[in-house]
Amino acid sequence: xxxxxxxxxxxxxxxxxxxxxxxxxxxxxxxxxxxxxxxxxxxxxxxxxxxxxxxxxxxxxxxxxxxxxxxxxxxxxxxxxxxxxxx
Amino acid sequence: xxxxxxxxxxxxxxxxxxxxxxxxxxxxxxxxxxxxxxxxxxxxxxxxxxxxxxxxxxxxxxxxxxxxxxxxxxxxxxxxxxxxxxxxxxxxxxxxxxxxxxxxxxxxxxxxxxxxxxxxxxxxxxxxxxxxxxxxxxxxxxxxxxxxxxxxxxxxxxxxxxxxxxxxxxxxxxxxxxxxxxxxxxxxxxxxxxxxxxxxxxxxxxxxxxxxxxxxxxxxxxxxxxxxxxxxxxxxxxxxxxxxxxxxxxxxxxxxxxxxxxxxxxxxxxxxxxxxxxxxxxxxx
Lengths: 87, 285
Prior knowledge:
The structure holds two protein chains of two kinds.
Chain A: E1 5-11, E2 14-28, E3 31-36, E4 42-46, E5 49-55, E6 60-65, E7 69-74, E8 77-82
Parallel strand pairs in A: 1-8
Antiparallel strand pairs in A: 1-2, 2-3, 2-5, 4-7, 5-6, 7-8
Chain B: H1 5-60, E1 78-83, H2 93-106, E2 113-118, H3 120-127, E3 133-138, H4 147-162, E4 168-176, E5 182-190, E6 203-205, H5 208-284
Parallel strand pairs in B: 1-2, 1-4, 2-3
Antiparallel strand pairs in B: 4-5
């Protein structure tokens, strides 16, 4: 059984996603980055691209965005701070 | 009866007009309040995330080289940014913030405080004040948040701070807790003072200097933006409440004036009838 972790994607004007996922792939500044549960604490910048989330229900969700942002992984909680809205 | 019917009627008319104006202003402010409140509610969670990330990083990373954090030599020069409203009729909103600012100024050396004023009321208040220098004032925002003007104000503050003209920056604004509770505060803005917290061993990608270089200005901007939004939301809320009370007072007054008018009219009729009856009696006699 896969372990899940919580993901929070927020833009300045609203929350884009909040929920539990098994895995996440995000466009980090230096290339796509996959995150699974129990990832070590990490901070990175984000570039434009597509965020792919494999949700607990088994479905896959994708969010496109343009611009910059930050990603923080801490204690099985992933926070994505987007600077601009969704593309 | 002290007043003639005509005088009372004039007063009723003027109170009616006032009531129309205040109730219109109430509606305008409450719609502005709704809009700002929605924006504020949306921005707050984002800011809290940025703040917690910044705080985590600042406590976890040793020896951060950022001009926003390094404390300058304590020469005590302070920049105080005061956010007030442009127009009046908003109850005690401005007076509350002035009271807090006056208290703050008393505890500091006034000659070392420089002001950046947002809002006409703050400008009017301090232009007569002796011994406090005003760097710049921004008038005409009218409680309407705009990205470009917020950036312009912040740029001035940061320029003064980075050039070393001032050592610390404080912002005096009104914190919007709910539609009825607003708290005027003077908050330290720069330099950033990381609160001691848990230390995490972060992996940085690309590297920590680059991330901090991007994150810290972002944090500073988000924080300033939030303070402006808080203040403007509080302004609209105060005005809504003040206008609501004014409208209610006007309605009460209208009611008692109407009653008075009716009494005076009735008294006059009675008087005339008495006159007629007594003269009729006299003729009969």
